[in-house]
Amino acid sequence: MEHGTQNSDPVVSNRTMEIVVAGLFALVALVVMADSVRVGNGWGSDGPKAGYFPFYVGLIMLVSSLATLAVNIRRHSGERTAFVEKHQLALVLQVLVPSAVFVALTAFLGIYLSAVLFIAFFMHWVGKYPLKTILPVAILVPAGLFVMFEIWFLVPLPKGPVETMFGF
Questions:
Q1: Would you state the pLDDT for residue 168?
Q2: For residues 34 and 44, is the Cβ–Cβ distance under 8 A?
Q3: By the number of CB atoms within 10 A of the CB, which of 24, 96, 104, 138 ranks highest?
C-alpha cells in the first residue's frame, strides 16, 4: 500500500477478489470440460480424442479454483488488505472507460476515425497537449496505420463512413 496518498479508502479487499476470480476460473474450467466432453475426451483407436487434453487441463483448473475458493471462504475477514483503493481505481477507470468507448465507436465509425478521436481525447485530457500538437499526431498515426494495414499488408480492418466516402 502507498502511504501519504489522499484517497486511500479501500474499494474491495484481496479476499473478495480472490473469491471472485476463483469462481470465474471454476466457471471457465467447467465450460472447457463440458466442451471437451462434447467433442470427445476419451481415448480412440488412433490415440487421444480432440477433447482429451483440454478436459484434464480444465479438471486441473477446476480443482485449483475450488481449492483457492475454499481457502478464501474459510479465511476470516479480519485481514482487510485492500485489492484496490479509490485513487487507484480512479486511475484505472481513467483509461478503461475511454478504451471501452473507443471499442464501441469502432463498430460505428471504423477503427481509424475512432483512433483519431481516442488519441486526440487522451492527448488533451491526460497529456494536456496544445491543439497544434494534438491534431498532427491524432491524424497522422491512424493515417500511417491505414497505409500500413490496408495498402501494404492488405489486412482489412473495420472501416466506417469516412473510409466509405473515400472509396475504401
A1: 80
A2: no
A3: 138
- Beta bridge pairs of residue 119: none
Q: Contact at 8 Å (CB) between 142 and 112?
A: yes
The C-alpha torsion from 99 through 103 and 105 to 110, rounded to 10°, is 130
Enclosing H/E stretch for 12? strand 10-13
Q: How many CA atoms lie within 13 A of 37 on its CB side?
A: 7
CA 111, 112, 115: angle at the middle one, nearest 5? 85
Q: Look at the block and give the residue holding cell 471437451.
A: 36
Judge whether residue 4 has pLDDT over 80. Answer: no
State how far the Cα of 113 lies from the Cα of 148, in Å rounded to an integer.
16
pLDDT tens string 95-131: 999 999 999 999 999 999 999 999 999 999 989 999 9
